[in-house]
């Protein structure tokens, strides 16, 4: 693996893995403590609609997926805040609609023959430099916002009623959280794919929660775990020539099982 470091695509893969792990660790912690993992999953799968629109319109896929996912996140935030009893139905509808739009538009695109498996299951060694800049910018935005509004995020995560009494705009921060989750999902698509992205967000966080007693510590540990899983998965993928996304998630699951067994 060491001799492979001379290749630019491996260097890009390592940088992408570290950058997306930081974002996944921080946002994953907020997603888990807010118990909105299914919402994040809905956004992840509906982002395929943005991929289909981008392919059909001939615009950058990253741009199409980003705009579409943010719109979906805002719609889900608005609908679930007003009617949380229907939250499963709303997410299911958005999930199916996004996937259906993406599939139909890809089918209607004349002459398009690019393998879409990399978007479904990830291909970290195919991450271009433009995506790395996107991930770097996303990390800066996430770290800045979470640091600036840490108390607000903490309040809405553990006691939304108390947060409301304190004058915190729950609707705004809830929507902001889903938008950040959508941006993280889009960034992670090239690494693990939209099918497995929710696992990258949730597994390291669930593991970090075992060793944490504060939200900030959970974020740090989750980012470190995600980085470890991503780099190990990249190594396994390169050595055995198998899917990088699946390798990353399998290593994460195996680590979680080992930790749970020893903790028991």
Structural write-up:
This protein has helices at 8-33, 37-57, 61-82, 87-108, 117-121, 129-148, 150-158, 160-165, 170-210, 215-240, 244-263. The protein is mostly helical and 264 residues long. It has one domain (2-263): Orthogonal Bundle (ABC transporter involved in vitamin B12 uptake, BtuC). α1 runs antiparallel to α10 (215-240) and α9 (170-210) packs across α10 (215-240). The model has no long low-confidence stretch (mean pLDDT 88).
List keywords for this structure.
264 residues, mainly alpha, ABC transporter involved in vitamin B12 uptake, BtuC
CATH fold-type name: ABC transporter involved in vitamin B12 uptake, BtuC
Strand content: under 5%
What summary fits the major beta sheet?
Answer: none
Any idea what the shape is? globular
Q: Over the alpha carbons, how many angstroms does the gyration radius reach?
A: 18 Å
Helix coverage percent of residues?
Answer: over 70%
How does the SSE layout of this entry go?
Layout: H1 8-33, H2 37-57, H3 61-82, H4 87-108, H5 117-121, H6 129-148, H7 150-158, H8 160-165, H9 170-210, H10 215-240, H11 244-263
Helix pairs in contact: 1-6, 1-9, 1-10, 2-3, 2-4, 2-9, 3-4, 3-9, 6-9, 9-10, 9-11, 10-11
């Amino acid at each position: 693996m060491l001799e492979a470091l001379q290749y630019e695509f491996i260097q890009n893969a390592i940088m992408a893995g570290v950058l997306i792990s930081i974002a996944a660790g921080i946002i994953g912690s907020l997603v888990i403590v807010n118990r909105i993992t299914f919402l994040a999953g809905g956004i992840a799968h509906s982002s395929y609609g943005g991929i289909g629109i981008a392919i059909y319109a001939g615009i950058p896929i990253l741009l199409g997926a980003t705009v579409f996912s943010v719109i979906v996140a805002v719609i889900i935030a608005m609908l679930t805040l007003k009617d949380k009893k229907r939250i499963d139905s709303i997410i299911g509808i958005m999930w199916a609609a996004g996937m259906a739009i993406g599939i139909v538009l890809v089918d209607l695109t004349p002459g398009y023959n690019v393998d879409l498996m990399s978007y479904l299951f990830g291909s970290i060694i195919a991450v271009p430099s433009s995506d790395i800049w996107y991930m770097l910018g996303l990390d800066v935005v996430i770290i800045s916002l979470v640091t600036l509004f840490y108390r607000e995020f903490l309040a809405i995560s553990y006691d939304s009623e108390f947060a409301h009494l304190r004058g915190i705009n729950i609707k705004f921060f809830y929507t902001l959280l889903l938008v950040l989750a959508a941006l993280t999902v889009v960034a992670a698509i090239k690494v693990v794919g939209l099918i497995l992205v929710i696992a990258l967000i949730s597994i390291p966080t669930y593991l970090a929660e075992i060793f944490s007693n504060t939200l900030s510590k959970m974020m740090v540990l989750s980012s470190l775990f995600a980085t470890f899983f991503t780099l190990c998965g990249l190594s396994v993928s390169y050595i055995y020539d198998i899917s990088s996304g699946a390798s990353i998630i399998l290593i994460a699951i195996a680590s979680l099982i080992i930790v749970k067994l020893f903790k028991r």
